[in-house]
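To: structure subgroup
Subject: Chain for Friday's discussion

All,

I'm putting the inputs and outputs inline so they're searchable in the archive.
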Amino acid sequence: MTDQNITVAKVVVAGDAAVGKTSLVRRYVEGKFSTSRVATIGVDFYVHTVDTPQGKVKLSIWDMAGQKRFAFMRDRFYKGSCAAAIVFDLSRPETAQSLPAWKQEVLAGERAQHILIVGNKSDLVPPETHKWGARVASSLGGRYLVTSALSGEGVAQLFWELAVLALDSLHKRG
């Protein structure tokens, strides 16, 4: 959808509870990090405009609740999304085990989109852990990014790439 030379694109941020999805989005949109954590209930929405080589993209960012009790409602929230970031916590390897299920859930909701695999909380782990995360992402066939909502590492890159991928999805849809 285009609004006066600005393309509007829906993107989702998904993954297990407490992997830092909301912290990543708030770091990007609001430019700050909060140490207090309140669990997302259902979905939260944010809007932010990104400049890409193809033009401005107004991202409608849907921050999905990661708790299992909200799984029954998430499928309808994926409809119309153009790109998704599936986030796991580099300091908690068990959160990577559910990445295949998250990928399946996201694509079941909207097949025509691109997916990024995001290893968050890089500030809590040694650099060699990033290589493990890259292998996990490769096994899922997704592009891999390392981020830290605390330090801001990789956060702008994450949303810039989501915008570029969303544009690509929109062009393929026609």
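Points worth raising on Friday:
The mean pLDDT is 87.
Strands lie at 2-3, 6-15, 43-52, 55-64, 83-89, 114-120, 143-146.

D.
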